[in-house]
Amino acid sequence: MKKLLITALFLFTILAVYSCSDNDDNTGEVDKELPTLNIDNLRQSPVKMGAAVNINALKNDADYKNLLIKEVSSITAENVMKMDAMSVSKGVYDFTNADYIVDFAMENNMRVHGHVLIWHQSLPSWVVTFTGDTDGWKAMMKQYIQDVMSHFKGKVTSWDVVNEAILDDGTMRPTIWLEKIGADYIQLAFEYAHEADPSAILFYNEYGQEYSHTKQVAINKLVDELLEKGVPVHGIGLQMHTNIFADETRLKYAVRTAAARNLKVHISELDVAVNPEEDETLKFTDELAKQQQTIYRYATQAMMEVPAENQFGITFWGITDKYSWLTEKHDWGLPFDENFKSKPAYTGILQGLYK
């Protein structure tokens, strides 16, 4: 997420570390004797393990491609299924890169999760300058959602229909969709999506549930209100761009409360920063790797602790530190290093899978 978010998260979690009991302190030694699930790769996991896919790496780096084939059973396009990547103009599309990722998934028996239909970022210029009235905006949004979902029908299992509609203070984010359509744009987006592909699993995707109680309550309240109206919301996505200071209790509670709505739960964009202050002199030490391992274990345990029927899976926001949005922040947030070797984080995942 954005730098301000990471900084705020760091400050919040520092306070949390000092306010919680010793059992919540993640700075100690990881117990190397913790049992791990005995599997050869994450494709054999009892829950779907996925990764956000970098299109350029997929096309040009055979080691990256082979790592995905070996380790993941679900993929999300990192960027090429966002609106500005597919929508050239109103009713005109370029699905070339999105189709490439979907075809790769089909060839390798992977599930595809679509990301994202309606968001306040990654908007093409024609949307920003669109001059229709409220009904015109509704019609435009409906056409876009239904054109895209119809194109991928039968290939894309699930979609993030709306992403990040709530601010950290729990109020509605002032997006162009809210301004032009009104608060019911979220309900309409889900209804349009369900009309286009009744078999698709539809998610509301958001960040911050694991560190902000205020935001968590607001997210769950929004989903509850939609469900009460009969809106076809099938799941909640918890992005979980977190860091090594994350609190176990808060993290697991966020996943558990999402599942309490009897919806699918997706940890949808997981990475674990070790350098949230972006200190360019920091080295990725064994101690940082151990702390990162612990948080990966917590996140995986959180998914395993909800009922099986609610487990949609875990998607890492990347797979290797060689291709990660965190790399430019001088960070190492993913389960594999820049040389495609597994890190202690990978062991943490296997520990979390053990039941």
Automatic annotation (TrEMBL):
Domain of life: Bacteria
GO molecular function, one term: endo-1,4-beta-xylanase activity
InterPro entries named among the record's database cross-references: GH, GH10, GH10_dom
Keywords, in A-Z order: Carbohydrate metabolism, Glycosidase, Hydrolase, Polysaccharide degradation, Signal, Xylan degradation
Its EC number(s): 3.2.1.8
GH10 domain segment(s): 36-352
Signal peptide: 1-19
Alphabetized PROSITE patterns for the sequence: GH10_2, PROKAR_LIPOPROTEIN
Coiled-coil intervals, chain numbering: none
Membrane-spanning parts: none
Catalytic reaction equation(s): Endohydrolysis of (1->4)-beta-D-xylosidic linkages in xylans
One Gene Ontology biological process: xylan catabolic process
UniProt keyword Ligase present: no
Family per record: Belongs to the glycosyl hydrolase 10 (cellulase F) family.
Protein name: Beta-xylanase
